[in-house]
Design a protein that fits this description.
The complex is a heterodimer of chains A (183) and B (111). Chain A is mostly beta strands and 183 residues long. In chain A, 15% of the residues lie in helices and 39% in strands. In chain A, 28% of the residues are buried. The chains are: A mainly beta (183), B alpha/beta (111). Chain A binds chain B through residues 10, 13, 15, 59-61, 63, 82, 84, 107, 109, 135, 138-140, 143-144, 146, 163-167, 170, 176, and chain B through 19, 21, 30-34, 36-37, 40-42, 51-53, 56-57, 59-62, 85-86.
Chain lengths: 183, 111
């Protein structure tokens, strides 16, 4: 067990796109990171029992965190994005935690892994703690702090209206319309 | 240099409710991912983006204020969310280039 009081720094930053695909047959959603823009062509393709079509490309980035003291590297290739809770489901555990932490000036964000893998294997809690540590190390914590929690606390993902901190529609000169729920 | 100083010296218009704080450097980007990867705590973030998603991004990296340039209208929901997070939204009719010149003249840089 390392005794290092890690000081995290973002490294291996790659800008790219989070691609969202939906199966029009069973409504499954999957996401992956791509370094290249993949246009939303409306084309569908079959893969096993699924018929995938792209529903969104969001400009995003991926990164790892490295400790500047001991060089320990923590990889975050499995992190799809961070979502902020809009308080859509009053009984959702995320909303309950959000209210509780906000009273202490701690802002809650939900970490999402790539779908559908993350539903089987959510991002491990030690990685969420490292993300929390990283964002708090960068900020003036006397004013407020950040808490990153796991998406599997969301009560009903199909009704969640949380919003990803992604760049949607940034390749267009047209102003982005109101975002539609992805789930 | 504080957000209060910038409002007084450059005439930036405060839109949200917030507590004034120190400004430490300037970051310019219209991409949330760029801001999350590169902005530092205390930075003044200059952008033309007005979607409410700028607020969680600004909060995550702890910028001192978001300045909307070019006189763009800021939706009420963006302002409301900023007030909730105690994030300063300031607006100006100045183009980003002109504003950067004024900020540089006041001693602020890309820190």
């Amino acid at each position: 067990m390392s005794e290092c009081q890690h000081r995290w720094q973002m490294t291996n930053i790659q800008f790219g796109f989070v691609v969202f695909e939906k199966c029009f047959h069973c409504n499954s959603l999957r996401t992956y990171f791509s370094l290249e823009d993949i246009p939303i062509l409306g084309d569908k393709y079959r893969e096993g029992k699924h018929f995938w079509s792209r529903v969104e490309n969001a400009q995003s980035f991926r990164f790892d965190l490295q400790c500047t003291e001991c060089n320990h590297l923590e990889e975050f290739e499995d992190l799809m994005g961070l979502l902020y809770c809009t308080g859509c489901l009053p009984d959702c555990e995320v909303e309950v935690l959000r209210k509780k932490y906000e009273a202490e000036r701690t802002w809650v964000l939900v970490a999402f892994g790539h779908l559908p893998q993350t539903t089987e294997e959510p991002i491990p809690s030690h990685k969420l703690d490292i993300l929390t540590e990283y964002f708090n190390q960068k900020r003036d914590t006397s004013r407020s702090t950040i808490k990153i929690i796991s998406f599997n606390l969301i009560e009903d993902i199909s009704r969640c209206k949380g919003d990803f901190i992604h760049d949607v529609g940034m390749l267009s000169m047209e102003p982005p319309e109101e975002r539609k729920p992805l789930f | 240099m504080t957000t209060q100083d910038l409002i007084e010296k450059i005439g930036l218009r405060p839109l949200s409710k917030f507590e004034h704080r120190e400004v430490d450097g300037v970051f310019i980007s219209d991409m949330l991912s760029d801001v999350m990867a590169g902005a530092k705590s205390g930075n003044l973030w200059l952008t033309i983006q007005t979607h409410k998603s700028i607020i969680p991004a600004a909060n995550l990296v702890d910028v001192s204020a978001v300045v909307i340039t070019g006189g763009k209208e800021v939706p009420e929901e963006t302002v409301d969310l900023a007030s909730k997070y105690n994030i300063a939204i300031l607006s100006t009719a100045l183009a980003t280039f002109e504003l950067v010149g004024k900020l540089y003249g006041l001693g602020l840089g890309a820190d």
